[in-house]
Amino acid sequence: MCGTGAEQSIHSARVPLNQVKIQxxxxxxxxxLVREVVVPYQWDALNDRVSGAEPSGAVRNxxxxxxxxxxxxxxxxxxxxxxxxxxxxxxxxxxxxxxxALEEIxxxxxxxxxxxxxxxxxxNTYFTLKEPGQRWTNLAECHELYxxxxxxEAAVAYYRATGKRKLLDVVxxxxxxxxxxxxxxxxxxxxxxxxxxxxxxxxxxxxxxxxERYLRLSRYFLDQRGQKPSFYQIQLDERGGKTHWPSxxxxxxxxxxQSHLPVREQETAIGHAVRLLYMLTGMADxxxxxxxxxxxxxxxxxxxxxxxxxMYITGGVGSMPQGEAFSFDYDLPNDTVYAETCxxxxxxxxxxxxxKLAPESQFADVMERALYNTVVGGMSRDGKxxxxxxxxxxxPKACGGANHKYDHVKPVRQEWFGCACCPPNVARLLAxxxxxxxxxxxxxxxxxLYIGGEAALELGESxxxxxxxxxxxxxxxxxxxxxxxxxxxxxxxxxxxxxWCKQASLLLNGSAxxxxxxxxxxxxxxxxxxxxSGDVLELRLEMPVLRMHSHPSxxxxxxxxxxxxxxLVYCLEQADNGPDLHEVVLPRDAELKAAKExxxxxxxxxxxxxxxxxxxxxxxxxxxxxxxxxxxxQATVKFIPYYAWANRGEGEMTxxxxxx
Length: 660
Fold this sequence. Notes:
The chain has 660 residues and is an alpha+beta fold. It has 3 domains: 17-436, Glycosyltransferase, CATH 1.50.10; 438-541, Sandwich (Immunoglobulin-like), CATH 2.60.40; 545-659, no CATH class. The protein is 33% helix and 19% strand. The chain has helices spanning 25-46, 58-65, 80-96, 100-116, 125-129, 144-162, 166-181, 198-209, 212-224, 231-238, 273-290, 293-309, 341-357, 361-377, 422-431, 574-577, and strands at 20-22, 271-272, 325-326, 393-394, 438-441, 444-447, 453-459, 462-470, 477-484, 489-496, 504-508, 511-513, 520-521, 524-531, 535-541, 545-548, 560-565, 568-573, 584-586, 593-597, 604-614, 632-641, 653-654, 657-659. The strands form 4 sheets. A 7-stranded antiparallel beta sheet has the order 1-7-8-9-15-11-12, with no helix packed on it. Strands 17-18-22-21-19-24 form a 6-stranded mixed β-barrel. Strand 13 (520-521) and strand 14 (524-531) form a beta hairpin. The longest helix is centred in the first third of the chain and has 22 residues, at 25-46. The two termini are 47 Å apart. The relative contact order is 0.10.
């Protein structure tokens, strides 16, 4: 599968967003929301114009650093990254559809960023304004390369969208400066950032500029990570033990930032979840560009550990609030879960890169799971409220109360955060959704996600236009119309058979097309033929309601069941079922009825069943009693898609329900 040459690229090329037009009943709402509400709202938030929300200071920091205003730095040490992610989201919107007014705002911001850059290329408002003279002295904690990486990603996206080089030139100068500072040569810092991000960003910069210096620098940061003695400990000693954060753990807890071992020797997902997933995305990118089999093998080992032992059914990852981190295999509590929205976005990044390397449906299945559940669920339907943490069980009485182990869990989405990484991350992912639907490798077009619209895909020297139509995720009937540039062109169209689908069928121009071992490879049905203009492929995926059970080692879910239909995980919410959801029991033989409710939460398929409830109102035994409860009573229960919860006010919610 992979080459061994030092610079042998083995991945599929990016599909430009202006060649993919999404027209989809489910996703049109969210993409329009990002364009018309989310991006303008976040611009207001970044400019401190949202009443009642935590101030950002991000735009003002750049204005002060540029000499346009007076004042002090405000916010977190990584505040610059919020600006970069917003700009990246804007770039994807502009690439998909021109918007002169939005582009003018972005150009004005880029002018300010350029003015804030130092003559030597350095760009960071925190160290410019708050700790001048302390550049690169605390790599473990202070996110300098992380902020640089996000600005590089924004610049690459903006150049691709508009052809304008100003921000690309800014980040190229910055990357050249970084290259002059870091390395194993005498006089350079043999270090790497505490929060991975620069690695994947430098690969993007290499791809758009062709400058191999940036690819080598990305590989250096990956190769250097985990070397002994610890670079972070060396810098901590040089600072006389001074730390940025009160805990001071980031410089000495090497597992937290995945610097405990060289990256190729790591086999278990551990530490801060977003950092690990950004690192793995960079590793997959470098493996793709260089043919490095050892990096790819390391990616596979950590992928397997994450998805088979440390991932929630919703695609959430990072179960532990301490350090926003992975904990240990099968430790997946539902009520104290962290599952940061950014971590699921990082999982999607990683899955997409693995798909480009190896088109196996397991990667697209996880990408789809995280996208339709945690990521969409991370934003309210009004586009102005967000989840940082994504619990699978909530009792509002516990949130913000005396038991501080629930302090991180919010029963409703928040307007903004002091650490506001998640909202712009959601915006940039949804704005770039067109990049995740298809890939092309050789003479094969792979369809990974079932999202309606039209795509013009380059296949060798010619083009193929695909028109996709479906009512996904509410039903599993997908129609693909094929229009090759040249009639009779021979190529393969590969369509994913999702892991949740046990029965699938194909029709080609109205006639049944066999699905057998020779047809389905790595989870994709491959149709190789000489395609004619207007050929129609119809994929039918049966979409029954599935009762999902956990591995026996997941203690939190013992004796419980969750419901899934298609890619969507379901939950009980107080708005439909009243309080005390812990009393609900779902009999194993209960009929599960799925029906579309057009007026509910924008139109969803809800699931109803005849369940049972404890008869707690008749309990008279005090706090404890040798007598059991008086039994159960019949109760109709309704499940809604998990992504849609908390859009109807504060209340209880649970994904996992006791099974009788």
